[in-house]
Amino acid sequence: MSYICYPFPSTTKLTSITAVNLCAAATNHFLGSFSKKMAASMLCKRVAMLTRAINGLSVSKTVITVKSPNGLLLQTASYNPKPLKLNIKEPYIPDKNSEKTPEWQKTARYDSKLYGRYGSASGISPESLWPSHKQLESIIAEENEWHPPLEEMLKNIEAREKEETEKRLAREKLIADNMAKMPKMIADWRKEKHEKKRKLKEEKARRARLLAEAKERFGHAVDPRSSKFLEMVAEIEKEEKKKKKLLKRRLRMEQVGAPVTPPSAAS
């Protein structure tokens, strides 16, 4: 697409006389900044180029005149658009009995569209477009679901606010109860932590004592994973259980007042 810009009337036919008249008029227009001879020569060259460009346009090209601040703008289109196949005089009414008619043009929705566009000229009875009882029930149910009356909306809002208030009060009560239990929970946690530390310390001391006893018994350091060490630990635990059992028996007999007989050497 090309543009040729030059100030000239849109209804003027480009001839040699017109070109001369344009040269004269343009010369008088540009006398303020150029000399008369230079202005006439320059404008005559431009008019000659413009004449050749317009005469060289083919029949298939379209010339469009557009107004611009600098003058008149010629716009040439180098394509021929195909005409639209529209029947504006007569409306398109599909034949429902024809196999070539698409299925979507045979529906009641398309009939409503045709009647809304062409009215009685579509040949469609408005009574046939009225929804059936089942469709009316569906429309009413959908309207009640998505567009309920104001009273029902107010009831729903009230119920939702009541539910939110109950949830908030229950949460506040739970927080208050937990805050009241907080000192006891902290004390229990500290006690449990202290008990774990004590048990860990006792286990370490017992392990060190067993390793020292094994070293004293065998005369050298023993691997705590070896069978000798595990047998020694099992024997020591058995003796400790016997001592605890004897101590409980002695305490029980002292409470009753009967004499305590020590276990025999065979046992």
Condensed summary:
This protein is mainly alpha-helical. Among the domains are: 103-147, no CATH class; 151-247, no CATH class. The chain is built from six helices and three strands, in the order E-H-H-E-E-H-H-H-H.
- Beta-strand portion reads 5-15%
Report the C-alpha radius of gyration, rounded: 55 Å
Q: Please bin the fraction of helical residues.
A: 55-70%
Largest sheet: 3 strands, antiparallel
* Number of helical stretches of at least 4 residues: 6
Could you give the order of strands across the largest sheet?
Answer: 1-3-2
Average pLDDT level:
76
- Described by its quaternary structure, the protein is single chain
In total, how many beta strands?
A: 3
Shape: elongated
Distance between the termini: 121 Å
Order of helices and strands: EHHEEHHHH
Structural class: mainly alpha
Which blocks of ≥5 consecutive residues have pLDDT under 50? Answer: 1-14
GO cellular component, one term: ribonucleoprotein complex
Region (Disordered): 247-267
Pfam families: CR6_interact
Main location: mitochondrion
